[in-house]
Design a protein that fits this description.
The chain is α/β, with parallel strands linked by helices and 281 residues long. 54% of the residues lie in helices and 12% in strands.
């Protein structure tokens, strides 16, 4: 099994570590436009060799696209042009409808399996790659009915080798749910960090007074702006809907604080505690 991983950051690098360790991949080819990422990936032995996109694609049985979603949309048609009827392409991007639309008329679109492993950290680059990043997480495969059966089986086998639970849904539903569960969390973190940095000019005070709760809430603000700006643009319709609800709830909460309405505040937080039943399953 020859794997070509396009994008050697946190996701691509972690994927390389685990697919080598679990024996799924016999050879791992890396593709990355950043020379420093290429050097680091080779130094860390994440990949066996670095090739250009065309050469790496032609040599691999499975091509995995782990670059930002705007780049995936740009290169996916080119990758499909290069493959034969036995090769498989998948991606690990956070939005799906945009990608599916980008190849809707392509003759080899059934060789592409849209997928999204729900795993990651706030760090980036090959040095951020870690073992077992994907273990016991969920991998979402979208629009399964439009993919060739052997292509689906190969991608399923890869995710199962990573000890992931596989869930199936269509691309539009994926993007809607991702906006509510994942994308809004990153927006909240980015803007909370900016709020604190704008109003609190003392770095010492921030460091000394920031509790574990604050640190965990703004942890995602360390994420890649390039990657997340792409995601927000491509999933803008769903994210805008989420933000409308979120902003209304924030305004209501502010108004009740101004009104010193203890019962409302208590009730809203008690209602929010129900999330524990979901997350602790």
């Amino acid at each position: 099994m020859k794997i070509c991983i396009v994008g050697l950051g946190l996701i691509g690098g972690s994927l390389a570590i685990d697919l080598r360790a679990n024996g799924f991949a016999d050879e791992i080819i890396g593709v990355d436009i950043h020379p420093e990422h290429q050097r680091e990936a080779l130094r860390l032995k994440l990949v066996d060799e670095i090739l250009e996109l065309e050469e790496g694609t032609k040599k691999a049985d499975l091509i995995v696209l782990t670059v930002p979603v705007s780049v995936i949309a740009e290169i996916l048609p080119k990758v499909l042009d290069l493959i034969n009827e036995n090769q498989v392409v998948t991606d690990m991007g956070s939005t799906k409808s945009f990608l599916i639309e980008a190849i809707k008329g392509h003759s080899k679109k059934s060789r592409f399996v849209p997928s999204h492993p729900m795993a990651g950290t706030e760090n980036s680059g090959p040095k951020a790659a870690i073992r077992n990043l994907f273990a016991n997480r969920v991998a979402i495969i979208c629009d399964k009915e439009h993919c060739d059966e052997d292509a689906i089986k190969m991608v399923e086998k890869m995710y199962k080798s990573l000890f992931m639970e596989i869930v199936y849904m269509n691309g539009a539903d994926h993007d809607m749910h991702a906006a509510y569960v994942s994308h809004i969390s990153h927006i909240s973190s980015f803007l909370l960090a900016n709020t604190v940095l704008e109003k609190e000019k003392s770095e010492t005070a921030i460091f000394n007074l920031a509790s574990g709760g604050f640190e965990s809430t703004v942890r995602l603000a360390k994420s890649s702006p390039k990657m997340w700006a792409d995601i927000f643009m491509q999933n803008g319709e769903h994210i805008s809907t989420v933000l409308e609800t979120y902003i209304k709830l924030l305004q209501d909460f502010k108004n009740k604080i101004d009104d010193k309405d203890y019962d409302y505040l208590f009730s809203e937080m008690q209602k929010a505690n129900a999330i524990r039943k979901v997350l602790d399953r």
